[in-house]
Write a structure and sequence with these properties.
By secondary structure, the chain is of the alpha+beta class. The chain is built from five helices and seven strands, in the order βαβββββαβααα.
């Protein structure tokens, strides 16, 4: 089955007081928390690539889904929503970006314009765009201004596509 690409959106670190919903808990525990009823949650598969976005701010990194969504029975949160318990996806190959990718640089160039959902499916090219901008935040502006003196965004995406193809081939061999 082909790798799918997603954006998981969350509020800034500290919003939830370092509980399981908070990025200050998610990142060190390598477990991304979503409610059972979250739209599209059930479509996310092991091996899919997820870009982490902070609402209204930035894309802060990416990870590969390392396990199926599991309910959190050990956490005393199910009493808050017994019919809609939280659970987590294991995260592997976590990469955090410093600096993060400003949301406004890529948001309106993505194929999926949904700004509100917590789980959004994007295309492989969308993921490559986010990574190209992470490497060089000026590449979007260069493409928009059609400057010919520097590599275009399409060139950056072509290089990233080749890298992704190589990574996917290695992942298939190791599976």
């Amino acid at each position: 089955m082909a790798t799918r690409f997603w954006v998981f959106a969350d509020k800034p670190e500290g919003t939830y007081g370092h509980r399981i919903w908070d990025m200050s808990w998610i990142i060190p525990n390598r477990r991304y928390t979503l409610k059972k009823s979250e739209r599209q949650r059930s479509q996310v598969r092991v091996g899919d690539v997820v870009y982490m976005r902070i609402y209204g701010q930035a894309y802060i990194g990416r990870f590969v889904v390392g396990g199926h969504w599991q309910p959190c029975p050990e956490l005393d949160v199910n009493e808050l929503a017994p019919d809609n318990p939280p659970g987590t996806f294991a995260m592997r190959d976590v990469v955090l970006w410093s600096p993060p990718v400003r949301q406004d640089l890529v948001l309106h160039h993505l194929s999926n314009g949904n700004l509100r959902a917590r789980v959004i499916e994007i295309t492989r090219e969308d993921g490559l765009l986010i990574e190209a901008v992470q490497r060089d935040p000026t590449c979007v502006r260069r493409e928009l201004s059609r400057t010919n003196s520097t590599p275009s965004l399409r060139d950056e995406i072509a290089v990233l596509k080749a890298k992704v193809a190589g990574l996917e081939a290695r992942l298939e061999k190791s599976s």
